[in-house]
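Private note to self, pasted from the team thread so I don't lose it. C-alpha cells:
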C-alpha cells in the first residue's frame, strides 16, 4: 500500500484495501493447496472414450483431470485450474498430466490395446519456453514410440493468441509424431484463414453446439460447417458432448464419424 501511495503521486493517501488483501491471501492459500494436492498424489486422470460412431469401436480416450479431495470428494478442473492459470504451477500440473497419460498409454500398449490418448494443454503451459523439449524428454522415458499415439488438445483461443509462435511450436512437436486438436472449435474466432497456417489434424466440435443441434437450426448449421471445414483441411472432426442416439445419428448423417460424451 505504501508503494502504491508513492506510485500514485505525492500528497495522496491510498487506503489499504482489507477486503482485497483477504482475497489475495485466500488465493495464495488456495494455490498452495493445489500445490499440495500435486505433491500428495491427490490428482488423478479419468479417461473418456472417443468412439467411431459408425462401427461402435473405441479409437482413443481423452484424459480428464480430477482432484480427489480428502474432504470434498472428486473435484472437477473448473473448480481449481482457473486459480493456477497464470502461475508456474499451471505448467507443473500440465507436465504431471502428460507424464501420467504417457505412463497409462504405455501400459495399454503393453496390454495389447492400441488406443490414442489426448491431453488438454493450457495456454500458459504451451508458452513455456521449453515445452517441446519437456515433451521430448517425457516421450523419451518410454522405450515404445508413444508420440504417434499422443494428441494434444489446444483451445482455439489459446492457439490464436500468437499464430506464428503456435504454428512453430506445433511444427516442432509434430517432429515427435504428436498430433494436435483444436479444442472448442467454433467458439473462438470468426476468421478461418489461420486454419491454413496451423498444422492441426483434428477439430473438436464444442459440446454446446452438439447439445442443441437437434432443435436449433443455427447450431446445426455450425456443426455442419465445422464438419465440412474439417473435410476441406483434411482434419478429423470429433463431436464432444454426445448424449443421445439421435445426436449420434445426426452426426453420422452429417459425415462426422467420431464422438465422445456421457451418452456413450
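Design output:
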Amino acid at each position: 500500500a505504501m508503494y502504491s501511495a508513492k506510485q500514485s503521486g505525492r500528497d495522496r493517501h491510498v487506503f489499504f484495501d482489507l477486503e482485497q488483501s483477504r482475497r489475495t491471501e485466500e488465493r495464495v492459500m488456495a494455490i498452495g493447496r493445489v500445490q499440495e494436492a500435486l505433491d500428495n498424489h491427490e490428482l488423478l486422470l479419468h479417461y473418456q472414450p472417443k468412439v467411431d460412431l459408425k462401427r461402435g469401436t473405441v479409437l482413443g480416450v481423452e484424459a480428464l483431470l480430477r482432484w480427489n479431495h480428502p474432504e470434498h470428494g472428486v473435484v472437477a478442473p473448473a473448480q481449481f485450474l482457473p486459480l493456477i492459470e497464470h502461475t508456474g504451477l499451471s505448467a507443473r500440473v500440465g507436465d504431471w498430466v502428460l507424464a501420467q497419460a504417457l505412463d497409462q498409454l504405455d501400459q495399454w500398449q503393453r496390454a495389447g490395446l492400441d488406443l490414442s490418448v489426448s491431453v488438454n494443454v493450457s495456454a500458459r503451459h504451451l508458452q513455456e519456453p521449453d515445452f517441446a523439449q519437456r515433451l521430448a524428454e517425457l516421450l523419451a522415458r518410454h522405450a515404445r514410440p508413444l508420440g504417434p499415439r499422443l494428441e494434444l488438445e489446444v483451445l482455439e483461443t489459446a492457439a490464436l493468441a500468437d499464430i506464428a509462435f503456435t504454428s512453430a511450436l506445433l511444427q516442432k512437436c509434430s517432429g515427435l509424431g504428436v498430433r494436435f486438436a483444436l479444442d472448442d472449435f467454433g467458439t473462438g474466432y470468426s476468421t478461418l484463414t489461420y486454419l491454413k497456417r496451423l498444422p492441426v489434424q483434428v477439430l473438436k466440435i464444442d459440446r454446446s453446439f452438439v447439445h442443441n443441434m437437434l432443435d436449433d437450426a443455427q447450431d446445426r448449421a455450425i456443426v455442419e460447417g465445422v464438419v465440412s471445414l474439417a473435410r476441406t483441411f483434411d482434419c478429423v472432426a470429433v463431436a464432444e458432448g454426445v448424449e443421445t442416439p439421435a445426436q449420434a445419428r445426426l452426426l453420422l448423417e452429417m459425415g462426422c464419424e467420431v464422438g465422445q460424451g456421457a451418452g456413450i
